[in-house]
Structures
1.
Amino acid sequence: MDQAERDELTGIYRDARMIAVVGASADPAKAAHQIPLYLQQQGYRIRPVNPRGGELFGEPVATTLSEVAGPVDVVDVFRPAAEAAGIARQAVAIGAKVLWLQLGIADDEARRIAEEAGLTVVMDRCMLAVHRELGLGPLRAAA
């Protein structure tokens, strides 16, 4: 990755506090469980979104993105690319700053929808792998 991309990605992690995880899974064998758990361990507040509801990572599970209370910095997506445009519209509606489509997920319509609304878009990248690649440690509270 070039320096401009490193700077942009580092800024996402630096500025994010709340990450809504669409498609979060209760199955510890799935990336949609492992990655949000890792991010939570790094100090980010995770709000899982899954139509099944319940509780995950010690947080209530919102059944839709619109149910997530509080400002959402990043919408991290673990759903098929065919659903990405709809999720992008929801991310715009809740005022998210970043739409992050996990590894293997890319959609030009989702990118267009999000970017036209001023969101930063990351596609086909793993939030855990990028965090490690950038050499970032746990989130530190602002002094």
Note: The chain has a mean pLDDT of 95.
2.
Amino acid sequence: MALGLLLTACASTSTVDKDSQTTQNWSVQRLYTEAHDELMHHNYTHAEKLYEILQARFPYGAYAEQAQLDTAYAYYKDSEPEKALAAIEQFQRLYPKHTNMDYALYLKALIQLNEDKSLVSKIAKQDWSDRDPKANREAYTTFAELLERFPNSKYVNDAREKMQKLLNALAGHELSVARYYMKRGAWLAAVGRAQTIISEYQNTPNVEEALAIMVSAYQNLGEQQLSDDAKRVLVQNFPNSPYRQMPWRDRNDIPWWRYWK
């Protein structure tokens, strides 16, 4: 293993040295063009090396600024989110008034989101609510900053769509925790999670079940008045809800052959 790591490091260093020698007499424009071509052809690792050489030799000017942004994108596409986030945050510090700051914020949110776009994930239709809620909140905050600072940006529409999906995911996470508490008989904790959904994620599809959980949890706590109040709100906002006639039950506990029930 040690020998393998050593050989890999040597190969990497050799590649960098080779690129340095090959590009020794290149102008900044040619360096950027070659790096960008590598980026467009999905040769992300080589693009990163060329951008690194460019920024080391020509640390100032428009090419260096764009190279910093392109480097973040290359790391993002190369599945290195930590490096990508570091690069984009460095870009924000160095060029806070850059004309492409709307794109920088959009890219930053995508990096924080770190969406799994693999074939397996697409087939399984991964639910964002199963992801780390901290990452979801960070991405949502960055998308919100983009909308606030650059309301006319071309990235706004996609940002809004992703923000709604993130809200649904955050509410879904709270709902999953509430379900867990209900199954454990932690009624008060379940009520707390349900209230969070109702107060913070009002425009998500999870509010209906959150109200149903409150109805059931309050009944189990012996708080009939609070249970009735929650049911009135449920019926008023969701007149066709199945929870009008039946108590809340975790669908995961229903046999697969009775899902149509």
Note: DSSP finds twelve helices and no strands in the chain.
3.
Amino acid sequence: MNRSKILEDIRGRIGPENLFDRNSFRRGRCSADLTGVSENDRVVVDLDKVFPSGQQGRNQCECVLFFFDAVGNLIVVPIELKGGSSVDASQAAEQLKGGAAFAIDYIPSGVKSICRPILFCNGMSKAEYRQLKKPQSQVPFGGKSFEIKTARCGDKLADVLPQIR
């Protein structure tokens, strides 16, 4: 199955009503700039639409981005946005893990995929940053664990994930 067919399959299974199609994903006082990944070559799932407020037991990040890198890997990017002055690293890690768990169900079998979880925030304490770097904060995905990258609110995703270019 070629790349565009895989992305179209993901779009169709998730449903167009749950997708995000602009270049700046914003929640409250934080945003992620998605320019650099063509709108035709990506799928951005707004998990707040998939799991509306009031659903109990759902610990999800804001969105999940699917795209292919230059060598053909499907890159899955759970994105959490924290615009406040303090970040609870354990909570953010759980939300990113929830986004990765959601995404794994939409990857066709046989497609090599890599997870790149990102926390966009306005800064965090050293203690919270250390917590984020502990092994228990890593995001499990496809039998591997992935470290959470951090970026400032408003940063370009292409600068945080060099494989986009």
Note: The helical segments are 3-14, 47-50, 89-104, 126-133, 157-160.
4.
Amino acid sequence: MVNKELLQDIFSYDNGNLYWKTVRCSKLKVGQKAGWVGKKNYLYVRVNYKAYAIHRLVWIIHNGDIDNGKIIDHIDRNPTNNKIENLRIATHTQNNQNSSKRTTNTSGYKNVYWSTEKSRWLVKCNVNGLPKYAGSYKLLGDAVQAAIELRKKFHAEFAQDDITC
């Protein structure tokens, strides 16, 4: 397990990046940028033979331990932007609220779905695992606006208001 003191001994932080302060491996150099790009473009680094996501380590260096069940959310949804001002504590649900539209989305807009049964655009998001509806619309633009308002209402600071998110 890592803690703030250990990480501050091993790394220096600058503008979202970690740099080695001390090294135990001949392949690494003091002052060298730490980490590699891993799955889903997140950056990782190995500490005491275990891989850690760099955004988690940046958070710990600045704020201490992370409560169980909490995760670190990238506000701008860019997994390589580990600047401390771009990171925040979130629940799994909040992190999902700050996500892009699903790959199965056919409308091009988050929370907007076409209903062949009604021949209208439906607006729906999930809140605490339960669906919340904002109606059905003939015009796509009206549905998009309703989706934006729905996200603001239920997702608060984690709402993604960029129209094509």
Note: The two ends are 36 Å apart (CA to CA).
